[in-house]
DNA sequence: GCCAACGTTGGC
DNA sequence: GCCAACGTTGGC
């Protein structure tokens, strides 16, 4: 299994919104960047992802989700009323992908970007703390996964290593 | 609201 | 294929 980080603007979709969703599952759709899409396609059922709130105060990691359905066509690309509509994507030749994720846990205290930055030395090449990385889907290494849980004061989810 | 970073587009 | 213009992201 692999680890990931998923960004979302809480105004658009927050971890609390996921908590209220049926079965606490959502389609992670609307990704319109090829590199991020390719990461989505590399996800497997059981992979875990940090849920990151961007464009808010403070930005930071707020919990963990689990991939419950691997990449499949992002049907919002076919919907002319969707803000993610992309007429280049057809049902015959889909361009964009989505995965389904389910809430694993909400952290009582989020881990702010500011705090993450203060641990840049131990997090190494963690993409979030590198300037200018705007990808909404990013890989996280196992050591970064553990380090982030340690910084957050959250025990590494036992689910993380049971698969 | 500003603006740096960076992906995408499109003229050539 | 190059690269300038443009649009978006997202922290501040």
Order of helices and strands: EHEHEEEHHEH
| Nearest-integer average pLDDT | 90
User: What is the approximate shape?
Assistant: globular
Largest sheet: 6 strands, mixed
Low-confidence blocks of residues = none
The chain-level structural class is alpha+beta
> How are the strands of the largest sheet arranged?
2-5-4-3-1-6
Question: What would you note in describing this structure?
Answer:
- With 163 residues, this protein is of the alpha+beta class.
- The chain has helices at residues 15-20, 34-42, 113-118, 120-123, 142-152, and strands at 3-8, 25-28, 48-53, 60-73, 97-112, 137-140.
- The chain has one domain: Roll (ph1033 like fold).
- Strands 2-5-4-3-1-6 form a six-stranded mixed beta sheet.
- The protein is globular, with a radius of gyration of 16 Å.
- The N and C termini lie close together (7 Å).
- 33% of the residues are buried.
- The mean pLDDT is 90.
- It binds a DNA duplex (12 and 12 nucleotides) through residues 7, 9, 33-35, 54-56, 59, 113, 131-134, 136.
